[in-house]
């Protein structure tokens, strides 16, 4: 049988990696898919730029729409990122009756509902394994491997750049800005690195994971998102002294009151496997009713790891080319007419334990005032550390771990503590999860 012809939009890190993996493993891939898969047409912004792959016989253009409209192409692989041009290209590919593979998390998180509805009408597939956690086959694991389960919650380290920064701060005492610069040079960071450090990239990925885990529509705008830029080396080391690691987690949980969707720095007990996922690596911990906890670990970014996910999607699409569209694996794991309209819980109603750090004038009665405010809000203290003031003006650093508290009560308590005269700094709050 003739090989399936594929068009690539974007020939950067992931595009180059995809050509390399398709070439290097051509025989294995054909044995798995039942047909060869070849790239015949590709677009790149700058045709003169050096590439990590051999272009061979691939026809090149600077116009991605030319690839999308190429009648010989059966599958379009979108690797240009962003959600404006990429959206137009993907919608046009679908309108042209082509299947789509994409690594674009922003596009799926923000426009996925519309894209999948269009694909459904046209009877084409849109595959997006590479959009979440790079090379880890987490979409397939949740959508297919865990299809017999009711998924209760998942928690993931789903941004490699953020994890690299927190790891370097802990291991080497390095400065936030300095590590971020290195992550950019290594090619891990997003085009706009605030997407990494402010949790937007993780929120895109969490939106996708929650949809396929719980059978709900994609709802990026409902994710509570907090970044890691306010975390200090002090927080990392105080957490360690108390037996915790700080990780930037994406958490999705089904509760009786609604679905929690949140990305924020989180203290987790250091004995948990996921607390020991370091550097640029990603991991997703899934708690499901039948299987219990399962943990998925691997490279979340980079040319070959992300290409691994793109090529796996290509193989899936090729295998399903001749199947009846009604009998394919649904885009969002659940049948499109069976998606549930579960409420998303406002952050104010979410309940977590907390780490609090503040600086206070070192004089009698200050701690009593702080603990009275916490007590009035029904907040119980679990552990406490006090560090001697380096100078009298700087005050003593107080760290408290609380038991679980509803976010609204903690917000009120923080506001009142900050208004106390002897409290010399804002209160830093980092939520805690036991993940047990
Ligand atoms: N900027 C992302 C990360 C790349 O650091 O994880 C993969 O999505």
Question: What would you note in describing this structure?
Answer:
The chain has 436 residues and is of the alpha/beta class. The protein folds into three domains: 4-135 and 303-337, 3-Layer(aba) Sandwich (Rossmann fold), CATH 3.40.50.720; 138-299, Dihydrodipicolinate Reductase, domain 2, CATH 3.30.360; 350-432, Alpha-Beta Plaits, CATH 3.30.70. 35% of the residues lie in helices and 24% in strands. The chain contains 14 helices and 17 strands. The protein has helices at 13-24, 26-33, 64-68, 85-95, 105-122, 138-145, 160-172, 176-185, 194-197, 200-214, 233-241, 303-320, 366-376, 407-418, and strands at residues 4-9, 37-43, 59-61, 75-78, 99-102, 126-127, 151-157, 224-225, 244-255, 258-269, 281-288, 292-299, 351-360, 381-387, 396-402, 405-406, 428-432. The strands form two sheets. Strands 7, 8, 9, 10, 11, 12, 13, 14, 15, 16 and 17 form an eleven-stranded mixed beta sheet that branches. It has a six-stranded parallel beta sheet with strand order 3-2-1-4-5-6, sandwiched between helices. Strand 9 and strand 10 (258-269) form a beta hairpin. Helix 1 crosses helix 12, helix 4 runs parallel beside helix 5 (105-122) and helix 7 (160-172) packs across helix 8. The longest helix has 18 residues, at 105-122. The chain is elongated. The structure holds L-homoserine. Residues 134, 159-161, 188-190, 196, 201, 300-301 line the site of L-homoserine (HSE).
């Amino acid at each position: 049988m003739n090989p399936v012809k594929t068009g690539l939009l974007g020939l950067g890190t992931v595009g180059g990696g995809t050509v390399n993996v398709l070439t290097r493993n051509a025989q294995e891939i054909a044995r798995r898919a039942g047909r060869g898969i070849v790239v015949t047409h590709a677009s790149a912004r700058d045709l003169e730029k050096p590439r990590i792959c051999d272009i061979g016989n691939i026809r090149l253009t600077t116009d991605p729409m030319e690839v999308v409209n190429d009648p010989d192409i059966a599958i379009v692989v979108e690797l240009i990122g962003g959600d404006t041009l990429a959206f137009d290209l993907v919608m046009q590919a679908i309108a042209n009756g082509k299947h789509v593979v994409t690594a674009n998390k922003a596009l799926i998180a923000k426009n996925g509902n519309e894209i999948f509805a269009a694909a459904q009408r046209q009877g084409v597939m849109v595959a997006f394994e590479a959009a979440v956690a790079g090379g880890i086959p987490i979409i397939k694991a949740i959508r297919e491997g865990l299809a017999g389960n009711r998924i209760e919650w998942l928690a993931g380290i789903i941004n490699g750049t953020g994890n690299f920064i927190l790891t370097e701060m802990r291991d080497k005492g390095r400065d936030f800005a300095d590590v971020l610069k290195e992550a950019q040079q290594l090619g891990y960071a997003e085009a706009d690195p605030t997407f990494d450090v402010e949790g937007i990239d993780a929120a895109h990925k969490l939106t996708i994971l929650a949809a396929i885990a719980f059978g709900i529509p994609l709802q990026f705008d409902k994710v509570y998102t907090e970044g890691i830029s306010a975390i200090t080396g002090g927080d990392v080391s105080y957490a360690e002294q108390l037996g915790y690691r700080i990780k930037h987690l994406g958490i999705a949980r089904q509760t009786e009151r609604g679905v929690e969707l949140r990305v924020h720095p989180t203290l987790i007990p250091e004995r948990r496997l996921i607390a020991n996922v370091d550097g640029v690596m990603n991991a997703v911990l899934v708690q499901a009713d039948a299987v219990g906890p399962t943990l998925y670990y691997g490279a979340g970014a980079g040319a070959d790891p992300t290409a691994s996910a793109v090529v796996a999607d290509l193989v899936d699409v090729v295998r399903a080319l001749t199947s009846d569209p009604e009998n394919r694996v649904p885009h969002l794991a659940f049948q499109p007419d069976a998606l549930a309209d579960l409420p998303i819980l406002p952050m104010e109603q979410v309940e977590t334990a907390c780490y609090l750090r503040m600086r206070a004038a070192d004089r009698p009665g200050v701690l009593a005032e702080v603990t009275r405010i916490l007590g009035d809000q029904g907040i119980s203290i679990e552990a406490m550390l006090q560090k001697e003031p380096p100078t009298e003006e700087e005050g003593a650093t107080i760290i408290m771990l609380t038991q679980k508290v509803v976010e609204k009560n903690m917000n009120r308590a923080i506001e009142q503590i900050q208004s106390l005269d002897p409290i010399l700094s804002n209160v830093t709050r980092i939520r805690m999860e036991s993940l047990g």
